[in-house]
Amino acid sequence: MAASIFSKTQFTILSILLTLTLVFALGAAEDGFVRAMDRKLLGLKKQKFSHFQFYWHDIYSGKNPSALPIIQPPKNSSKNGFGVVSMIDDPLTEGPELSSKLLGKAQGFYGLASQTEAALIMAMNFHIMQGKYNGSTLTILGRNNVFNKVREMPVIGGSGLFRFASGYAHASTHKFNPSNGDAVVEVIFPAFDLCDDKDWLLSEISRRGGWARSWTSLAEDGFVRAMDRKLLGLKKQKFSHFRFFFHDIYSGKNPSALSIIQPPKNSSKIGFGVVSMIDDPLTEGPELSSKLLGKAQGFYGLASQTEAALIVAMNFHIMQGKYNGSTLTILGRNNVFNKVREMPVIGGSGLFRFASGYAHASTHKFNPSNGDAVVEYNVYVLHY
């Protein structure tokens, strides 16, 4: 009898505690549509570090190409095709042959975002179609200078088993056909994702004799391998502030900003749907003649019917000092008539691997007659 009463009492107490937990986890409304949550409810565990390798087939030739040019700028003074955009549904295979095992698809688009180099802005998802990662995606947004031997682009997120993922991808051309543009690119990238059992992972790495053996033995699906994050040599994060001036130039014979999409039907008076590709100089001072620090390469589009609010996707490609060759990636909203606009830094490459932060943009000068603008950027970044 006592045991029965005790069991009922325990059950009642546990029920009350569970109810209170759910109330605090799900019921703390901040703004009606926002509620504070306990991250434990998502089942998130400690991160693990994985390495993926596959071959990406960018095919323009044949009756069923996987890469399709969708934008050809009507006016372009650049000889290398500045502003051209292609949509892709490219196979990802285990080996360099197209006939080898299909692991997934690279789906998205890329555009030529430089007037002087074959430097693309890449926005794509690696959709995995094999093994335990089947249905999960890894998302890339970065700069790809295709004639460099190895190009690095940030992994900015993912879905499924790659929720909250971050990392970077290394791309190197395996084969290129200049007559039709077809290419085979080897893609290798480490990425953090969520591990079901990190203790098991570390014990296995230790048991198998460190990284070298774990790398050759701990294959999950052939193209995925567990790795020890210490191999990257990542140290403590530091916080840096960068300041430069962004020159968005539509005028003259060699503009750095080019309108590549003019919607054929547009009921908005402010140009809703217009898209521009940019290769804008970043300088030390507000004068275009001041020291060149880098380029802002990417695109922006007018994404509001009522405000001058842009969606901005661009890479700050640094060209000076110890950060030369590194990039910071921006994806955010820019309401250009606000005094100060804030956009997130979502990743980076080189010395900005795993970067996060935000950028403040404020207009220094604007010419309404031709659209030219000088914008001061202050960028605050956490990086290793």
Question: Which key features would you list for this structure?
Answer:
eight-stranded antiparallel barrel; 384 residues; 2 domains; eight-stranded antiparallel β-barrel; AOC barrel-like; 3 helices; mainly beta; disordered N terminus; 19 strands; single chain
What is the average of the pLDDT values?
Answer: 84
CATH homology-level superfamily of the largest domain? Allene oxide cyclase-like
Stated plainly, the CATH topology of the largest domain is called AOC barrel-like
Radius of gyration equals 24 Å
Architecture of the largest domain, according to CATH? Answer: Beta Barrel
Span of the ends, CA to CA: 63 Å
Helix and strand content put the structural class at mainly beta
Count of distinct structural domains: 2
Provide the CATH top-level class of the largest domain.
Mainly Beta
Organism: Cannabis sativa
Keywords: Apoplast, Secreted, Signal
Family: Belongs to the plant dirigent protein family.
Subunit structure: Homodimer.
Question: Can you describe what's shown?
Answer:
β15 (309-318) and β16 (327-335) form a beta hairpin. This protein is mainly β. Helix content is 11%, strand content 46%. The chain folds into 2 domains: 49-197, Allene oxide cyclase-like (AOC barrel-like), CATH 2.40.480.10; 238-383, Allene oxide cyclase-like (AOC barrel-like, Beta Barrel). Strands 1-3-4-5-6-7-8-9 form an 8-stranded antiparallel barrel. An 8-stranded antiparallel β-barrel has the order 11-13-14-15-16-17-18-19. One of its GO terms (biological process) is phenylpropanoid biosynthetic process. Its main location: secreted. This is Dirigent protein. It holds the Pfam family Dirigent.
